[in-house]
Amino acid sequence: MGCASSHSTMVVAVPLADLRAAPHTTVQTGTHDPQQETQLLYGEQVRVVESREGWSRVEALEQAEYSHQGRWQGYPGWVPAQALAPSDAVSTATAVVTSRWARVWADAYRTAPLPMRLPLGTMIRATEMGGQLWRVELVDGGFAWMAYAEARSLQELAVLPPLERRTLVLRIAALFLGDPYVWGGRSPRTDETAIAASGVDCSGLVNLAYRAAGMAIPRDAHEQSLRAQPVKAPQPGDLIFLSERGNPRHVVHVMLYAGDGDVIEAPGTGQTVRRIPLARRLGQPLDWLAPGSVVDGQTVSFGSYLP
Question: Alpha helix locations (H) across the chain?
Answer without folding.
Answer: 154-158, 162-174, 202-211, 221-227, 278-282
